[in-house]
Amino acid sequence: MDRIILLCLVSSWLSAVHAQKFLISPKWVPRGFKEREERGDGTAMDEIIKANEFHSTRIIDGSTSLREGDIAVSAGRRSKTCFARSCLWSKSVDGHVYIAYNLSPEYSEMEEKVIKKGMETIEKGTCVRFVPRTHQRDYIDIQPKSGCWSYLGARGGRQTVSLQAPDCLRTGVIAHEFMHALGFVHEQSRFDRDNYVTIMWPNIWRDRLRNFEKFKTDSMNLPYDYGSIMHFGMYAYSQDGEPTIIPKNSQNIKLGQALTLSHIDKMKINRLYKCGDKDDY
Ligand SMILES: [Zn+2]
């Protein structure tokens, strides 16, 4: 009898230890998954997946979660309906879209420089300008929280963009997150994407299938952009090293972008904010 009680005690202690371990480390890794070897052709989204799935805790806070890998969604708030024109930043009379920002003092001087480079990547060839916040009501609050993520479009008031150091501090990743804040979803979420790419469902981590959903987006009469900084890479969420997205018709098209916006990305910003297609901003 004593032995049975002892066994019960030991097993409940073990499960308590197990549960605690889980609570401390909520990071999820698919069974049998091996981190893919570097191929040197990664996209901004590949870096984001690496940071969010392997180098950070997955839960942002009790009421906020990530969809599509890096778009923050608060429970009970408009989210999926926030496409294109429903959540724009306001435009100034001088034709620019000024986005006020606050930069966390936790970043080092070097890190601050990289973040500003990411801002310049967006500003070049577009009407968007990032300005340090003085009194503006709506602004982005750039913080080194866990992972790389942003809310979609302007939410009104303060909104966080998380850029964890050092994993998210690459110009392409920073520009990608700012594109979300400007109101853009991932390129392969476009409602017409099946005309351009094939999603290889069996190759995707089973728990991440939802990251490949389609949405009713406004393509603003721009062609499907394989080279968008908002496009997933060919091996995004691959569970066995096989491609998860294959371009239709041609195998030679590279998906996504590592460092900078594509020309169409810039046109997308200018069209969404009705800034015209001129290149001389
Ligand atoms: Zn993203």
Q: Would you give an account of this structure?
A:
The structure is a single chain. This protein is α/β, with parallel strands linked by helices and 281 residues long. The chain has a single domain, classed as Collagenase (Catalytic Domain). Helix content is 25%, strand content 15%. It has 5 helices and 9 strands. The chain has helices spanning 2-24, 44-54, 109-123, 171-182, 263-272; strands at 64-67, 71-74, 97-103, 128-132, 139-143, 148-151, 158-163, 197-199, 245-247. A 7-stranded mixed β-sheet has the order 1-2-6-7-5-3-4. The chain has a two-stranded antiparallel sheet with strand order 8-9. Strand 1 and strand 2 (71-74) form a beta hairpin. Helix 3 (109-123) packs across helix 4 (171-182). The protein is globular, with a radius of gyration of 21 Å. The protein starts with a helix and ends in a 9-residue tail after the last helix. Residues 13-28 have low confidence and may be disordered.
List the helices and strands and how they pair.
Blueprint: H1 2-24, H2 44-54, E1 64-67, E2 71-74, E3 97-103, H3 109-123, E4 128-132, E5 139-143, E6 148-151, E7 158-163, H4 171-182, E8 197-199, E9 245-247, H5 263-272
Parallel strand pairs: 2-6, 3-4, 3-5, 5-7
Antiparallel strand pairs: 1-2, 6-7, 8-9
Helix pairs in contact: 3-4
The structure holds zinc ion (ZN).
EC number: 3.4.24.-
Signal peptide: 1-19
Cofactor: Zn(2+)
